[in-house]
Amino acid sequence: MMKKKLRKKILVTGANGQLGRCLYDVSLRHVEYEFHFKTSSDLDITDKRKLDNLFVNEKYDYCINCAAYTAVDKAESDKENAYLVNAEAVKYIADVCEVNNTILIHISTDFVFDGEVKTLYEEQEKPNPINEYGSSKLKGEEYIQEISKNYFIIRTSWVYSEYGHNFVKTMLRLAKERDQISVVSDQMGSPTYAGDLAEVIIKIVNTESQDYGLYHYSNEGVASWYDFAKAIFDESNIDIKVKPIKSDAYPTPAKRPVFSIMDKSKIKLTLNIEIPYWRDSLKKVFTFI
């Protein structure tokens, strides 16, 4: 009698975050896999013993690590916790994945770069973070590369979705409170819809890709935060005056890279990924909000 093939078992950490929730939506179309979604309440990734016990019991094929400390400004004064979640816990996850032969898919950030280069950032570009958040995320990347053999690190940027707290939600809230809003116009990046990134992650699982390594992914196109805000109001038919301002006029505890646009050639060619233009994805989000 032929033995029935077991379904792939996939752990998703950070299940309450934007990407985690978008992955849950995508998972509903993939009943061929057994997904285990874990929030920070369900699983403390900073507790190595709990991670060890979970992996021994469950035998995961994939771990998609969406858990992160993402409060960029708060990280400047809360460095210890930022590094605990974004670096030390990632080391624990890399360790437990390596021991249990689990493929790790980890999400990182464009903030590992300083923004001084005015050409597209390729994966081999030397990182140089200019804030504690970026430094903590880079340390997590380094741990994975030191420990793991079977991993995908995906750097992304300016993530938003219909879920949680993000720039789109903030702009919509401010539009209800004000007649005019000022938005930074001299920081350039690529807005990324978490739902698109979720689809890419599931494609990696579907194709059983073994092209392990570091990848860049964001939606196509370039925008400033001012451009992004204008597009949000255009798509939502909100009539509000948007004033462009320089970063100096809006000081924040954490310094931001002024140019963090990443080259996505590697992920497009290696994994055969088609990437939507950022405004097209923004339109899609407004069908959910």
**How do the strands line up in the largest sheet?**
2-1-3-4-5-10
**CATH topology, which one?**
Rossmann fold
Q: Write down the secondary-structure element order.
A: EHEHEHEHEEHEEEHEEHEHH
Secondary-structure content class: alpha/beta
Helix content: 25-40%
Number of domains: 1
State the helix count. 9
Regarding quaternary structure, how should these chains be classified?
A: single chain
Low-confidence stretches: none
End-to-end C-alpha gap: 51 Å
Tally of DSSP β-strands: 12
Mean pLDDT across residues: 96
CATH class: Alpha Beta
Strand content: 15-25%
Identify the overall geometry. Answer: globular
Task: Name the features.
single chain; 289 residues; alpha/beta; Rossmann fold; two-stranded parallel ribbon; 37% helix; 18% strand
Quick recap:
The chain is α/β, with parallel strands linked by helices and 289 residues long. It has nine helices and twelve strands. Strand 1 (8-13), helix 1 and strand 2 (33-38) form a beta-alpha-beta unit.
What does this structure look like?
- By secondary structure, the protein is an alpha/beta fold.
- It has nine helices and twelve strands.
- The protein has helices spanning 18-27, 48-58, 79-99, 132-147, 167-177, 194-206, 225-235, 265-270, 278-285, and strands at residues 8-13, 33-38, 62-65, 103-109, 151-156, 159-160, 180-184, 188-189, 192-193, 213-216, 223-224, 241-245.
- Strand 3, helix 3 and strand 4 (103-109) form a beta-alpha-beta unit.
- Helix 2 packs parallel to helix 3 (79-99), helix 3 runs parallel beside helix 4 and helix 5 packs across helix 7 (225-235).
- The chain starts with 7 loop residues before the first strand and ends with a helix.
- The mean pLDDT is 96.
